[in-house]
Amino acid sequence: MPKGSCLCGKSGVEFKTYPEFKILCYCTDCKKVSGSIFGCSILIPKSEVTTKGSLKQVTVHAESGRPITNSFCPDCGTTLFREGPILPDTIIIKTGVLDDAVDFENLKPMGEAYTCNRPEWVTHRVGEQYVGAPPGL
Questions:
Q1: For domain 3-118, which CATH number applies: 2.170.150.70, 3.40.50.300, 1.20.1250.20, 1.20.1510.10?
Q2: Most buried residue, 25, 33, 37, 108, by CB count within 10 Å?
């Protein structure tokens, strides 16, 4: 079962199946959460996800204008996953928290979102290109 953890190891997440939807995102919110120029996320049904340790939540409004709740380790601050009302039965796991390099190979993104915010020097493209959010998100 794929699993991930925070920087200090006190909090974590596991899921039972590999996701069908994997995406790179250049929206401002994903950049802030990841501390990088993009975020990489996988969408997993809530029923397939279990968490470990304590988590703290903060809800913000994403670039789309919709609320999104970030769940993170209260000790080190690593965001493990996100969720929101647009996808009520889904957990958005940040792939950077996964513990096994094999999982990264199985989770190649199928596209890129908010490419309007992508720096021009990022020339490599992955899958479908969306100027904003992908359809249904």
A1: 2.170.150.70
A2: 25
- Lateral strand order in the sheet of 128-129: 56-61, 67-72, 79-83, 90-94, 39-45, 21-25, 111-113, 128-129
- Sheet with 12-15, strands from edge to edge, namely 3-5, 12-15, 49-52
List CB contacts of 105: < 8 A, sequence separation 6 or more.
none
**Do 23 and 38 touch, CB atoms closer than 8 A?**
no
Q: Domain segments of the chain: what residues?
A: 3-118
Alpha-carbon torsion (71, 74, 33, 3), positive or negative: negative
**pLDDT tens-digit profile of 34-73?**
999 999 999 999 999 999 999 999 999 988 888 999 999 9
SS3 75: coil
Q: What pTM was computed for the model?
A: 0.90
Digit-coded pLDDT (tens) for 75-110 = 999 999 999 998 999 999 999 999 987 777 778 899
Stretch (H or E) spanning 29? helix 28-34
